[in-house]
From TrEMBL:
Belongs to the VPS35 family. One of its GO terms (cellular component) is endosome membrane. Plays a role in vesicular protein sorting. It is found in: Cytoplasm; Endosome membrane; Golgi apparatus, trans-Golgi network membrane; Prevacuolar compartment membrane. This is Vacuolar protein sorting-associated protein 35. GO terms for biological process: intracellular protein transport; retrograde transport, endosome to Golgi. The keyword Transferase does not apply. It comes from Arabidopsis arenosa (Sand rock-cress). It comes from the Eukaryota. Pfam families: Vps35 (PF03635). Gene3D superfamilies: Vacuolar protein sorting-associated protein 35, helical subcomplex Vps35-C (1.25.40.660). Keywords: Cytoplasm, Endosome, Golgi apparatus, Membrane, Protein transport, Transport. InterPro entries: Vps35, Vps35_C. It is a peripheral membrane protein.
Length: 786
């Protein structure tokens, strides 16, 4: 209903403006000054209305403004025809109503200034004083806006046509400052006109009119003769006085932004303490972070655009002033949310990184100031504040692209302490990803310790974390990052590298049962790489107390892997024990190697009960043991006897058969003559054949026919015999192979699948034709292959 009335009143006012503008134009065309003034006054009387909203009033004002341009031209023409401009200036003051009178006075006043019959200063003083007669907020605001508009290009300044005496540009400055002050007062008063329930509506309407006030500051910035001294001593103090004293949130926020945007960067830099001194005096509800962020962004761009400007930043101590000002703002606004205060320091940090990128002490000081502010809040529960902290901590990472530089910032980890677990973990991921992405070289134990402290959200379990609530795929991906990080750590100095491994171990072992199976393996393999680097050196090149010896590192690994057996990961522990045993064997440490095998055997006996897991584990044991060359006869026989015993006790007969014939390799090593026992090789193979016979008999008893699986066992045995025949085992003869081949021949007639045996027989035929092999294969008859 109110909107409809607004439209109706606006339509009526516009109609009246058009009608009077028509008669005014007709009077102008006939050079009738009296009627032109009459109808222009009547047209301007429409601006006296109080019925229109500010938005609609603005529409009406624009209509009138366009018509007044025609009237101004007419006044200029009249003076050209001999009419006295002074008389015109007096004549328009006889208009009946104050508002039309002042609009006409401003219009003729602009012409009067242009004529140079009197000084511009006198006219401007007269106009600015007369405009005080209109104190209605809306009408007075638009009247002064019109005054500023028509006099903008006529202000006396250095080098202008209206310069006048030497102080004329200061008079122009005073005119603009006075007009700005009065307009701002009128603009602020609009907020207090009408019932309190319409406060939000009025604030919205005022926001639409803010440019009318801001244009005065733009005019000030364009005035010739306003140098740094005048700006510092006159302009800025006067503007800030009005900003602070108006005590209006909207006005303070907008005008501070205007100051920052319209005046030159070097002015801001040289008057930084004055501008920043006003910030704590603003209303608590003012969005101060927007104001300061705009200022720091402009200064940052200024520093980036001009290398010559950088010394000025140091000279005026810009960082110290900004840091102090932000601290004062935070102190003054006791109800400032944590997110807002962190945002302020974020902008300061970005400014510092941009302008003082080589001053890590400044960066660390910003971090410390943020810690001081956060100390009153404790752990952040506000998501918005937590996101700002992440952005705050990410800024140095993005700037330096080097985590080693970040590790030099003592306050960096202190800021991270205020993040909740999930956000802390997210920040840790960002840090680790930065290391991996930028290929950062973390080379000392101290750096590693500091890095893992930063990344502890990824590495350790925290109280209150429920494993069931963690997405398994995400968890695996997170721990993969930790594993990649461990592999990334390297130092050419073995002693320092061993310290790195000890440091990593300290952090990894605190990770909790769910993480250990994923984080211990990369630690073990990193240590094994170091052991192999040390293998070619003396037993202890660093002295008795040095940590970088193979034996000392292997002892550490033994203790580390043992932890896995306590967290239900025996399969993994066994694999790692065998890997360590290989490294100990390469270093010719028999006792240590035997100890690793002992632990692997104990795990096999006590912890691994699943039949499939036993088969896999036993194959790993046999394969690793076969490669060992460090054992004496007694130790090797003990371990070999144990392995063959395990083979015979597997649950499934086919598994037993395969494990027993694999044990044959434990008695034959090509490169060691003392590890070639042909008789025991054949004994293992014959024992495996007996187990295969038992499998065949069970198949015949249950199905009444041979099974493909049992025949496959015979073929696998045949391949083992052929292997040892080629390796020169004198106990493996052609007769033995021939008898097994005949057995396979008889059994293959009962099953459909012959692919495996056919491939084997083709291999035999091929080897018979090769030089050096024909003698070994000549006793094997192939007629039955037809």
């Amino acid at each position: 209903m109110i909107a409809d009335d607004d439209e109706k009143w606006l339509a009526a006012a516009i109609a009246a403006v058009k009608q009077n503008a028509f008669y005014m134009q007709r009077a102008i065309d006939s050079n009738n000054l009296k009627d032109a003034l009459k109808f222009s006054a009547q047209m301007l009387s429409e601006l006296r209305t109080s019925k229109l909203s500010p938005h609609k009033y603005y529409e009406l004002y624009i209509r009138v403004f366009n018509e007044l341009g025609t009237l101004e031209i007419f006044f200029k023409e009249e003076t050209g025809r001999g009419c006295s401009i002074a008389e015109l200036y007096e004549l328009v003051q006889h208009a009946g109503n104050i508002l039309p009178r002042l609009y006409l006075l401003c219009t003729i006043g602009s012409v009067y200034i242009k004529s140079k019959d009197v000084t511009a200063t006198d006219i401007l003083k007269d106009l600015i004083e007369m405009c005080r007669a209109v104190q209605h907020p809306l009408r007075g605001l638009f009247l002064r806006s019109y005054l500023a508009q028509v006099t903008r290009d006529k202000l006396p300044s250095i080098g202008s046509d209206s310069e006048g005496d030497g102080d004329a540009h200061m008079n122009a400055l005073e005119f603009v400052l006075q007009n700005f002050t009065e307009m701002n007062k009128l603009w602020v008063r609009m907020q207090h006109q009408g019932p309190s329930r319409e406060k939000d509506k009025r604030e919205k309407e005022r926001n639409e009119l803010r440019d009318l006030v801001g244009k005065n500051l733009h005019v000030l910035s364009q005035l010739e003769g306003v140098d740094l001294g005048i700006y510092r001593d006159t302009v800025l103090p006067r503007i800030l006085e009005q900003v602070v004293n108006c005590k209006d949130e909207l006005a303070q926020c907008y005008l501070m932004d205007c100051i920052i945007q319209v005046f030159p960067d070097d002015f801001h830099l040289q008057t930084l303490d004055v501008l920043l001194g006003a910030c704590p005096q603003l209303q608590p509800s003012v969005d101060i972070k927007t104001v300061l962020s705009g200022l720091m962004e402009r200064l940052s761009n200024y520093a980036a655009s001009s290398v010559e400007a950088l010394p000025n930043f140091l000279q005026v101590e810009a960082f110290s002033k900004l840091n102090y000002a932000i601290g004062k703002v935070v102190e003054a606004q006791v109800d400032l949310p944590a997110a807002a205060s962190v945002t302020l320091y974020l902008f300061l940090l970005k400014f510092t990184l941009h302008v003082y990128s080589d001053r890590l002490d400044y960066v660390d000081e910003v971090l410390g100031s943020c810690v001081t502010q956060l100390s009153a809040t404790g752990k952040l529960c506000d998501d918005k504040a937590a996101k700002q902290i992440v952005a705050f901590l990410s800024a140095p990472l993005e700037k330096y692209n080097n985590v080693v530089t970040i590790l030099k910032l003592t306050n960096y980890p202190r800021v991270m302490e205020y993040l909740d677990h999930e956000t802390n973990k997210g920040m840790a991921i960002i840090i680790v990803q930065s290391v991996l992405k930028n290929n950062t070289h973390i080379a000392t134990a101290d750096e590693v310790d500091a890095l893992f402290e930063l990344a502890k959200g990824l590495i350790k379990d925290f109280d209150g974390t429920i494993d069931d609530e963690i997405d398994e795929e995400d968890f695996q991906e997170e721990q993969n990052l930790v594993a990649r990080l461990v592999h990334k750590l390297y130092n050419d100095d073995p002693e320092e590298m061993s310290k790195i491994i000890f440091t990593v171990r300290k952090h990894i072992l605190a990770g909790g049962p769910k993480r250990l199976p994923l984080t211990i393996p990369p630690l073990v393999f990193s240590a094994l790489k170091l052991i192999r680097r040390l293998r070619g050196g003396d037993e202890n090149p660093f002295g008795d107390d040095a940590s970088a010896t193979p034996k000392r590192i292997l002892q550490l690994l033994s203790e580390t892997v043992e932890v896995l057996s306590d967290v239900s990961a025996p399969d993994l522990a066994l694999r790692l024990y065998l890997q360590c045993a290989q490294a100990a064997n390469d270093c010719e440490l028999e006792t240590v190697t035997y100890e690793f095998f002992t632990k692997a055997y104990l795990l096999y006996e006590e912890e691994i009960s699943d039949s499939k897991a036993q088969v896999t584990a036993l194959r790993l044991i046999i394969g690793t043991l076969q490669r060992m060359r460090v054992f004496n006869v007694e130790n090797r026989d003990t371990l070999t006897h144990k392995a063959t015993g395990y083979s015979a006790r597997l649950l499934r007969k086919p598994d037993q058969c395969r494990a027993v014939y694999e044990c044959a390799h434990l008695f034959w090593a090509d490169e060691c003559e003392n590890l070639k026992d042909g008789e025991r090789v054949v004994l293992c193979l014959k024992r495996a054949q007996r187990i295969a016979d038992a499998v065949q008999q069970m198949a015949n008893a249950s199905r009444g026919t041979s099974s493909t699986g049992s025949v496959a066992l015979y073929v696998e045995l045949l391949n083992k015999y052929l292997y040892f025949l080629e390796k020169g085992n004198p106990q493996v003869t052609g007769d033995t192979i021939q008898s097994l081949a005949e057995l396979i021949r008889s059994e293959t007639k009962k099953v459909e699948s012959e692919l495996f045996i056919n491939s084997t027989l083709r291999y035999i035929e091929f080897q018979r034709q090769q030089d050096g092999m024909n003698e070994k294969y000549e006793k094997i008859k192939m007629e039955w292959f037809e």
